[in-house]
Amino acid sequence: MDGNRGRDRRFPGTAVCGGEWASGYPARSRPLLTWDRSMTDAAARARARLRQELSGHPAGDRLVELVLIAAGELVANAHEHAPGPYQLRLTAGPVPRIEVLDRGSGLPPRAVARARTAQGLGLGVAGRGRGLIMVHRATGGAWGSRAVAGGHSVWAELGGR
Questions:
Q1: The CATH number of domain 16-157, selected from 3.30.565.10, 3.40.50.1950, 3.10.310.40, 3.10.580.10
Q2: At 44, phi and psi to the nearest 5?
């Protein structure tokens, strides 16, 4: 989505059909990237924006790398499995929280259970199906999903456990 086309001027950086996403977030939470299906490099752009935003974070480079891993997986999952538009949000602080919003109905319970109980990364077919397992490991289990107005959100907190 480019320019102001498809944007809600009340919530800069938020798509019109996602304007309600902006309500209920703390002031330090802000959208970093809003995209639709036509943006095929969304995960790479999300990682670049987060790297820029978290540069010099007091927790160090290791935390930033974990944030980038989790964000890349959450963005790719949303883009592949849910209708758009999509939005990546960052709540900055000692424990950064990333959140990816989409127009989907939520994570399948089976996918959540598999991610929370997997002993290894050997699950999945042809190198697929491991994204939430990676998020679970990167966050030490500090991730989840929730319904939001008009869609769904998957969040992850890093460095708090």
A1: 3.30.565.10
A2: -65, -40
Per-residue pLDDT tens for 73-102? 999 989 888 888 999 999 988 888 999 999
| Residues shown for the chain | 161
Burial class (CB in 10 A: 0-12, 13-18, 19+), 59: middle
In the DSSP assignment, the letter for residue 20 is G
Q: Yes or no: say if 34 and 13 are a contact pair by the CB < 8 Å rule.
A: yes
CA distance 135 to 72: 9
User: Cα separations (Å) of 122 from 33, 75, 112?
Assistant: 31, 22, 16
